[in-house]
TrEMBL record:
<protein>
    <submittedName>
        <fullName>Redoxin domain-containing protein</fullName>
    </submittedName>
</protein>
<feature type="domain" description="Thioredoxin">
    <location>
        <begin position="53"/>
        <end position="201"/>
    </location>
</feature>
<dbReference type="GO" id="GO:0016491">
    <property type="term" value="F:oxidoreductase activity"/>
</dbReference>
<keyword id="KW-1015">Disulfide bond</keyword>
<keyword id="KW-0812">Transmembrane</keyword>
<dbReference type="InterPro" id="IPR013766">
    <property type="entry name" value="Thioredoxin_domain"/>
</dbReference>
<dbReference type="GO" id="GO:0030313">
    <property type="term" value="C:cell envelope"/>
</dbReference>
<dbReference type="InterPro" id="IPR036249">
    <property type="entry name" value="Thioredoxin-like_sf"/>
</dbReference>
<feature type="signal peptide">
    <location>
        <begin position="1"/>
        <end position="22"/>
    </location>
</feature>
<keyword id="KW-0676">Redox-active center</keyword>
<dbReference type="GO" id="GO:0017004">
    <property type="term" value="P:cytochrome complex assembly"/>
</dbReference>
<keyword id="KW-0732">Signal</keyword>
<keyword id="KW-0201">Cytochrome c-type biogenesis</keyword>
<dbReference type="InterPro" id="IPR013740">
    <property type="entry name" value="Redoxin"/>
</dbReference>
<dbReference type="InterPro" id="IPR017937">
    <property type="entry name" value="Thioredoxin_CS"/>
</dbReference>
<dbReference type="InterPro" id="IPR050553">
    <property type="entry name" value="Thioredoxin_ResA/DsbE_sf"/>
</dbReference>
<dbReference type="Pfam" id="PF08534">
    <property type="entry name" value="Redoxin"/>
</dbReference>
């Protein structure tokens, strides 16, 4: 890796709430391409790209754990046997604000089709838990959110470099699908959940 490339990766990691990125892509729609554009929009976000991972492509189970904004302990390990939908968000992220009504609708649709599916927000930091809690309550977010503690995002195996990002974990707790950026269609993400839910546990 050249010195310029190392510097770019370091700058991106700092911009993404101090979270190390899983490599630097040359894709024009990637997060580092947005950083190079110099448009000064104040945040970096994905373009809504959907990634599906076959069982053979999936890594080890996610070891995410922490405390929700309401003070309750939670861990991904305790959700084994259930499909889990994780959404990385923050109230300072405009695409996160824009997608929240769709996430609320997605939650209702998925829970109707799969009553045992689990939803969990993951707070991306850079604001107080009080602000995040007020945002969630004000927009009637129907599922809990893990408070940012410096380790929560690191547990997502580099698959959530910036908010908003939505991940679908299979019944073994492995990342099976990802939407990098705001979701634009509840149906698309519900299809991802449906596919993962059909897999053998």
């Amino acid at each position: 890796m050249t010195q310029v490339r190392r510097m770019l990766c370091a700058a991106l990691a700092a911009a993404a709430v101090g979270i190390p990125l899983a490599g630097c892509s040359d894709d024009a729609g990637s997060i580092n391409a947005q950083a190079r554009s110099g448009d000064q929009k104040g945040y970096l976000s994905g373009d809504g790209t959907i990634e599906r991972l076959t069982a053979a492509q999936r890594k080890e189970p996610v070891t995410l754990r922490g405390t929700t904004l309401d003070g309750k302990p939670w861990s991904a390990e305790q959700q084994r046997g259930h499909v889990v939908v994780l959404n990385l968000w923050a109230s300072w992220c405009p695409p996160c604000v824009e997608e929240q009504p769709r996430l609320n609708a997605l939650y209702a649709a998925v829970r109707k089709a799969h009553p045992d599916a689990v939803f969990m927000g993951v707070h991306a930091g850079r604001e107080s838990s009080d602000n995040a809690r007020d945002f969630a309550r004000g927009r009637q977010v129907p599922y809990p959110t893990l408070a940012f503690d410096g380790q929560t995002v690191l547990a997502l195996q580099g698959k959530a470099p910036s908010p908003p990002t939505t991940l679908v974990l299979d019944k073994q707790g492995r990342i099976a699908a990802r939407v990098l950026g705001a979701i634009t269609s509840e149906r698309t993400v519900q299809d991802l959940v449906d596919d993962v839910a059909k897999e053998a546990g």
